[in-house]
Predict the 3D structure of the following.
Amino acid sequence: MITKTTETLAELYETDESAWLEAMAELIRDGRLSELDYHHLQEHLEDMALRDRKKVESRQAILIAHVLQWTYQPENRTASWRGTIIVQRYKLTKLLESGTLRKHAESSLVDSYADAVDMAMEETKLSAATFPPECPWTLEQLLAAEMLAD
């Protein structure tokens, strides 16, 4: 049973985040909402949301970069590229099970594409002019298995 004060919970947040999360969950489960460490709870939730959005953007950019490589350098296709596309597609699909993150992926596609072009240029040594100025695929197309069709 939690008998910590708000000050102690604030200290716990700084020293052991997992224990702090367990304490927050227990307080909520017990209906002791007035004892919650609201300041750090808000901070933690905002950090989680930002981390999730950044994870979506990163996986999306990596997926697009490898699809660009796959598409614009077919003579250099490797099992590694195929594997990266499959893994990133799978992990991105799992992240997008949340409707909110799916909306974020769709709205960040333009920025992710710009990052992906930079990555693809670095990896392939092709010029920016090689790639379309805008992402030629929708999110659904990028997540489809047909993306690897020869």
Summary: The chain has a mean pLDDT of 90.
